[in-house]
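Side project, low priority. Logging it here so it doesn't get lost.
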Amino acid sequence: MADTLRRLANTSSCSVVQQKLEAWDKDYHVISCDQNLNRCCELLELTSRVQGQLFTILSLTAQEGGHYAGVDTLKSRLLPWLSTCFTMATTSVSPDTSLNLIQDNVEKDRKLQELSLSHESDMFKMEDRLCSTRLELDSVKQKLADAKFELDSTKNKSATILLATEDEILHLKAELQDAYEQMNLYKMKMEDYDRQVRLLRDEVTYLTAEKTILQESRLMRSRSPSPVPHCSRGSSPVRAESPARARLTSSARRTRLLSCFSELYATERLEAQSLLRRYVDDLETVQRILFIAAVESFQAARLAYRQFKLRVRKTLSPTHVGPESLEDSVADYIVRNLDLYDVQTSVNDVINAMNVNPRISFPPEVDFVLVSSFIREMCRTAFSMQTLEPPLDLAFSTDGELYSDTKYRRSYDSEFTAPLVAYHVWPALMEGDTVIVKGEAVTRRGTLWRSRSRSRSPSPVRSRSGSPTRTLISNHSRSLSPGRLSTGRL
C-alpha cells in the first residue's frame, strides 16, 4: 500500500486536475459547447483515475488491518458519501428518499454490527467446541493406545494358552493311547482268564477220569486171586494209557505262555518302544521295528527248537527204554530242560536278520542291540510255545493285506473305513488254523500305493560288527552238542 500511495503522490495528478479546471474556467465562455464537454470528460477521466488509485489504497489498507478492522470508518464515512453521490446524481430522488436511504444504511450498519457480534460469539463457541473436541480426540487416542496394548497382551496370552492347550492335547492323546492299550490288555487278560478257566476245567475232568481209571485198576489187582502176569512194555493197561509229563502239563503251560505273550505286548513292548523313541522320532518306524523283531524271534525260536529236538532225539535214541515213545521222551526232556536253550544265539540271529531287512531303517550310530532284552523274552516265549501240542505260532502277515476282524484290532490312530492294513503293531497268535490272541494293525487309505513305493525305494543294508556277547555265548552253545547233552534228568 505504501508503494501505491508513493506513486500516487509522485504523479501529482491532483495538481494537473486543478490546472485544467482553472484553464477551463477562463475559456468557458469563449470555447464552444463541444469543447466544454470534452474538457469536462477529460477532467472526469483524470478524477476517475485518481479515485481508482485511492480505492486501491483503501482496499489494501483494509486488508492490512485484518478481517474486521476499519469497518466502523467505512460505515461512517464511505457509505454516507457514496449514498450522497448517488442522490446528487439522480434528479428524481427526493430528500425524503435520501433520508430513507440513510436510515436503511443505518439499519444495515446495525444489522452488520449484530451479525459481527453474533459471528464473534459463534467464533468463540466454535473455538470452545474445537478445544473440547481436541481434548476428546486426545482421550480417544489414549483409549485407543490402551486398547491396542490390551489387545497385544491378550494376543500374547492367547498364544501362550494355545501352546499350553496343544501340550495338554498331546498329553491327553498319550493318556488316551495308554488307556486304550490298557483296555486292550484287560480284554486280553479277561479272554486269557476265561480260556484258562475252561482249560483248567478240562484238565480237572481229564485228571478225574484218569484217577477213576487208576482206582479201578488197583481194585482189580486187589481182587485178583493170582498175581498179574508180566506184560510187555506196550501192553501195560495203566502205563500204556497214561500220557507223558509234557502232555499232562501242556494245558497249564499253554495258559501260562498265553499270559506271558500278553505281558510281552503290554509291558516289554511299551518299554522297548519308549527306548527306541529316544533315537527315532517316527512312531510308525518304531512299531515296525518291534513287530519285525517279534516275527524274527519266532522264526529263530522255531529253528532253534528243531535243531535242539534233533540233537536230543539223536542222543536219546540209542539208550531209550520205557513205556513212553521216543517222541514223548524227547518232548519231556525238552520241557524239563528249557534252560539249556541257547537264547543268546537266537537273539544274535534276530539282530542280524533285522540288519538286512529292507522294510526298516535305523540311525547308523544306534544298534538293534537296544531291544535285545525284548527279543530275548520273545525268543524264550516262542521256544516254549513250540513244546506245546499243538504248538503256537504267529499268523502270516504282510503290509497291504486285507484287514480281518478275526485276526487284528485296529489301533487308535487308524482310519476305520480303510480296508487294507498299512502296517502291523503286534502279530496275531495262532493255534493251528484258529486265532487265539488277536494282534494289532494300523489301517489307512492309500496303503497299497505307499507299500509299493516303500518296497521300490532301496534301503541300504547296514553292516554291523558282531555283538561281544555272542562270542561269550558261543562257548556255551557247544555244550548243547549231541555228545555233551546230559540225560541225567530223564
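Brief comment: Residues 89-93, 224-243, 455-490 have pLDDT under 50 and may be disordered.
Revisit when time allows.
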